[in-house]
Amino acid sequence: MKNEQAFFSEALGSGLNLSLTGFEEYLRDESRFVGFATGFIRARHENDVITSIALANRFQIPLTVVSGKTSITGASAPHGGVILSVRDLNNVDENDFSLVGPGAILKDYKKLVESKGFFYPPDPTSEDSCCIGGTIACNASGSLSYLYGPTRDYIQGLRVVLPSGIVLNIARGEVFAENGVFRPEGTDSSGRPVTDLTIPAPSISQAPWRMVKNAAGLFSQDKMDLIDLFIGGEGVLGVIVQARTKLLAKRYPYFALMIFTPSRKSTVTLVRTLDRLKKLFHDRSCLTSGNSDLNQEPFLPEDIGDLTDFSKICPSCMEWFGASTSSLLGGDRGKKIEQFYGALYVEQEYSDDEDMSDKLTHWSKLIDLFNMSDELGPMQTEAALDEKHLRALRQDRIRIPERLNELIKPGLRKIGTDLSVSMEKLDLLMKLYDEKLPKGISYIFGHIGNAHLHANIVARNPDEIKQFTELHQELARHVCSIGGSVSGEHGIGKLKKELLKTMIGEHGINEIRKVKTALDPFGILNPGNMID
Question: Judging by DSSP bridges, how do beta strands 442-447 and 452-458 pair with one another?
């Protein structure tokens, strides 16, 4: 209590915007996990962050950093101490709009760079309200990550304040781990250079997860880049105060297809077929990366003929609507999905010098081949060729989690999986969901192109919360046993620490703790996230 009072006194004396009441909305995030805190600081510029961290470290006061509060793992709900909001650090450099503050709303930033003729691909469902800093902290992805990759691929630089108050300016490709440590240069609170800093690199076995979409725990690889330690680090190692993004040329126009599939077999076969076409003809890097999926058994239908006939097929996303989502969608489309195993939503881009109808013809021929197979057909297809129709289909995908949350009764919550596997294990994951999930209160949807499907169970009473949490743990153990990940995109936060331990073991947890202890010996920063 004395430390806390001294902290508050120093914080007010330092000119920080500190509140001791009126911040109840910051005690919870989208997970409905409710935390507790005794104070709230609204950072207005970088120096506020540096001062807050220095005081928290000095008085050993826990500090939970928040921006958009869209986490569904409890990561942005405080675990005591003080909340530090970086929401107002939302500036975009007018002379270089790749430089952006952590509090910038993702959708606003994407619109801004689009108006300049560029494209920033990360597109999590919460892009209307999530902030750049939060997306970096959990390495957010989204539907377009199937083709374009997650946030990690689009961060070229970070300015990070460490718990010690040292500021690091990290540029991708400049500082790599050597002999198990990073040796970056930083500056102290007075702006003086710090050259004797060493940061241990985590050594966590990654072999199985290199083949799957993974956002669980700290990133780890041989000779890793320092910037990757903080991307996906869930804010436990430092506070991001600025990012430099990688921007692409403006996205090509595209059309969309909703393909209604009659069975799990037809779904998995279609998805694997499309994924293999993408890898063979478009994803050139996989041809030299040893990706074993290219050497899998021939995919069905066996009479597909010359693969080059379908070389123009390359979905930029593949999203799944299980039949269980029909009640969430409603309307004619919901009624139709209910009659099938589910529906695959894909988008196909085409350049200015390409004919959209030519690409549509390739898709039509492929679907016709599936429909000629007694085992795989019949499928039905809905095509969206204009902006109004495209917007309606995209809105359906966004609407599912929104309406799902409306089903949750006060005092209860949903149990949501974030499990991912390799493409060759997709059938096993879907079979697991088909057989294990309770009917009528489970909803399956998500990023099937990455073999990453969300299963959400809406608990109806406290006993079911316990029952379905145990089921989630059972599903996670099974997925880990086949080389999958317990988190494809949402991270671990405070709610999934046991699942992380299941995945990486005690040794992996200790490796994370080693890095955390080196940078944050008093454990002040985002306590309770990822590890205890």
Answer: antiparallel
Residue 364, burial from CB neighbour count under 10 angstroms (0-12, 13-18, 19+): middle
**CA–CA separation, 283 and 1 (whole Å):** 57
Q: Which of 182, 186, 133 is nearest to 164 (CA)?
A: 186
- Return the closest-CA partner of residue 402 out of 465, 340, 445, 452: 445
pLDDT at 425: 96
Q: Kindly report, residue by residue over 412-460, the tens digit of the pLDDT.
A: 889 999 999 999 999 999 999 999 999 999 999 999 999 999 999 999 9
Rounded distance between C-alpha atoms, residue 64 and residue 173, angstroms: 29
Count of CB atoms situated within 10 Å of the CB of 88 = 15
Query: Which run of H or of E encompasses 14?
Result: none
**Whole-number pLDDT of residue 488:** 93
Judge contact between 444 and 437, C-beta under 8 A.
Answer: yes
The full 3-state SS of 83-150, as one line of letters, equals: EEECCCCCCECCCCCCEECCCCEHHHHHHHHHHCCEECCCCCCCCCCCEHHHHHHCCCCCCCHHHHCC
- CA 326 from chain centre, in angstroms, equals 25
Pairing of strands 380-384, 442-447: unpaired
What does the pLDDT look like over 359-409, one tens digit per residue?
A: 999 999 999 999 988 888 799 999 999 999 999 998 888 889 889 988 988
Q: Which long-range contacts (CB under 8 A, 24 or more apart) does 350-353 make?
A: 350/252, 350/253, 350/254, 350/255, 351/252, 352/252, 352/253
| Contact indicator for 531, 512 with CB cutoff of 8 Å | yes
Q: How many residues does the chain have?
A: 532
- Terminal-residue alpha carbon distance, the chain: 22
Q: Give one word for 60, left, alpha or beta, with left for phi > 0 and alpha for psi -120 to 50.
A: left
For residues 171 and 331, the model is more confident at 171
Count Cβ atoms below 10 Å from residue 4 Cβ, excluding itself. 16
What are the chain's domains? Answer: 2-88 (3.30.43.10), 99-249 (3.30.465.10), 254-481 (3.40.462)
